[in-house]
Write a structure and sequence with these properties.
Elements lengths: L6 H16 L7 H11 L2 H8 L4 H12 L14 H16 L7 H10 L6 H8 L4 H9 L1
Helix pairs in contact: 1-2, 2-3, 2-4, 2-6, 2-7, 3-6, 4-7, 5-6, 6-8
Keywords: ATP-binding, Hydrolase, Nucleotide-binding, Protease, Repeat
Organism: Amycolatopsis marina
GO biological process, one term: proteolysis
């Protein structure tokens, strides 16, 4: 799926994997992608920060919910099913705009388009009052 991502979106996934590794998590979940988007510092990060969802607040919320894992020895962490679904939703958001590639704004919209509100990223963003509509408005500004 990486081939459909822009360079910035790919970078966000590299940063997501680094964050997952720093927490000793053996997977890349939506929470890691969310931090990857913030760490990448592009359009999605600016939209989140304009809504009061800064990196330290997001990281604190994530770590409060899931904590740290046990030390692991494997280096490659697979995407969760939810993360795969979010990328598919992001691809649909990009297609709706007539774009061939998925950028960081599309990934953020994909996170917030997931109907399963059990995901850590959606729970953290929801606790901060960040909604899909608010993000769309911030991206359009």
């Amino acid at each position: 799926m990486l081939e459909i991502l822009t360079d910035q979106a790919r970078r966000a996934f590299v940063l997501a994997e680094e964050y997952a590794s720093s927490l000793n998590h053996p997977y890349i979940g939506t929470e890691h992608v969310l931090v990857g988007l913030l760490d990448e510092g592009g359009t999605a990060a600016c939209a989140l920060e304009s809504l009061g969802a800064g990196e330290s607040t997001i990281r604190s919320g994530i770590e409060e919910i899931i904590g740290r894992g046990e030390p692991r020895t494997t280096s490659a962490a697979p995407w969760t099913k939810r993360t795969e679904r979010v990328v598919r939703l992001a691809k649909a958001a990009a297609a709706d705009e007539g774009r061939e590639f998925v950028g960081t704004p599309h990934l953020l919209l994909g996170l917030l388009s997931d109907d399963d509100d059990a995901g850590v990223a959606v729970r953290v963003l929801g606790s901060l009052g960040v909604t899909k509509d608010a993000v769309q408005a911030a991206l359009a500004a």
